[in-house]
Amino acid sequence: MNHSEIERLIEKASKYVGDTWPLYSFVTSNPLSGYEERHFFQAVKKAESLLEADMFPKASVYRKALERGEIDHFEIQKLLKKKGYAHTPEVSLELMATRTANKTGHKECALDQYMVKWLSSFLDEGLAEWQMPFKTEGFYMAWRYLAPYDDSLGKIGMNMIPKTSEEALEILLKGQSEETILMVLDQHLAALPGWTGYIKHRSEKLHAWQREAPIDLKDYLGR
């Protein structure tokens, strides 16, 4: 797996990452914009899998709409029958509520928490009173210089860390099929959609900050 192949696969995986504008901007951000070319139900299924989230409203929202007459009871009953369901809309909503209640929540990943710590330090854009050192070297290099001082990693020397994000990804992805690599990239990019969306937005549109402290999705994934 060489550099150009890695770049190609990151580009392919990142199409599901929507632009996230900075918090100080009044421009609306749509984190699902990367799914717009897909059929609605395909997009929902993909987003639900990657984001580990419910993509439809809760059963209580539908129930209130049904009670208020905002949803036609007869039409819903007809659709249920067409799809092979014998339940009434009310019973279907009860089953939907039970299924949702039994779903286990997403467990916070230690890696995600670790990444948020470093990303928030690097992407403060001048707001932090104490600036993260080595930011002009880029995100991956700045982290590489400072990682040996991070107690949460245990004893680690800079010589134990690959010199570039490309090298790190080559080592991690060596021998894997393209399908497996895309699945891994998809999952890691979707783990922190707000951050990865902002990295994508910044690398493409905020050129001044990129000159000051460069970062891209490759650095995020390699870290």
Automatic annotation (TrEMBL):
Pfam families under this entry?
DabA
Keyword Membrane in record? yes
Taxonomically, the superkingdom here is: Bacteria
Q: How is this protein named in the record? A: DUF2309 domain-containing protein
Which keywords does the record carry? Cell membrane, Membrane, Metal-binding, Transport, Zinc
Instruction: Report the PANTHER family cross-referenced here.
Output: INORGANIC CARBON TRANSPORTER SUBUNIT DABA-RELATED, UPF0753 PROTEIN AQ_863
